[in-house]
Amino acid sequence: MIWGEFLMARTSEPQQGQEASFGFLVQTLARRIDATMKERLLEHGVDIKVFANLMALSHEDGINQRQLGATLDFPEYYTSRNVDALVEAGFAERRPDPKSRRSFLVYLTEAGRKKAAELPPLIRQVNELYLSDMTEGERSQVIALLRKAVATSKAAGKP
Hints:
Blueprint: H1 22-43, H2 48-59, E1 63-64, H3 65-72, H4 76-89, E2 92-97, E3 100-108, H5 110-131, H6 136-155
Antiparallel strand pairs: 1-3, 2-3
Helix pairs in contact: 1-5, 2-3, 2-4, 3-4
């Protein structure tokens, strides 16, 4: 796979420019999904910056920031800021790690657990909005191909 300014998709039809660029298409879709999620999350009192962390902690509570960042593939500084925002919003709290005097474990508060429980229907709605023109088979294929691209980028040492 070639990493460059534009990663061109191979197609059976000759295409040029942005409509054939994997990177451009992924970025365009990501921006649109991000804007929709921001809007919908704000209706539920959640900043998009804390969304992924909130959902990750709802699946695995009581982990340290390093583990949380690794789970989400976020850099440590970004995870730290997001945990600060979660704590400030009242969705999480830091507790001393009994195994390490230097680290803290992050736990959802009751408010955080309630808020995380509200969000799966919203996530499904946004996913449906962007996948509604696809068959179940196409949806599965898109997810599988995106996972493969993410794995390839990790193997290539790309963030």
